[in-house]
Write a structure and sequence with these properties.
The protein has one domain. Helix 1 packs antiparallel against helix 2. The protein is mainly alpha-helical. It has 3 helices and no strands.
Length: 64
């Protein structure tokens, strides 16, 4: 069971990283680069919010 839990944790972390980077790319594409600086400056809180958004299944919902 420990190995499965470890892989679930790793999967959730990768989903968070993917989600954060995707959000940053969307912001850059919209010409709002200054918001990326704010996200980086407050990255701990931002990632915590993204982790909470993943929910218990690790799913962020449908990909766009």
């Amino acid at each position: 069971m420990g190995e499965k839990h470890g892989s679930d944790v790793a999967r959730r972390r990768l989903l968070i990283i993917d989600s954060v980077l995707t959000d940053m790319l969307r912001i850059a594409d919209a010409g709002e680069e200054h918001l990326i600086s704010a996200m980086i400056a407050d990255s701990q809180a931002y990632v915590a919010v993204r982790l909470a958004a993943l929910g218990p299944t690790g799913s962020t919902g449908p990909r766009r």
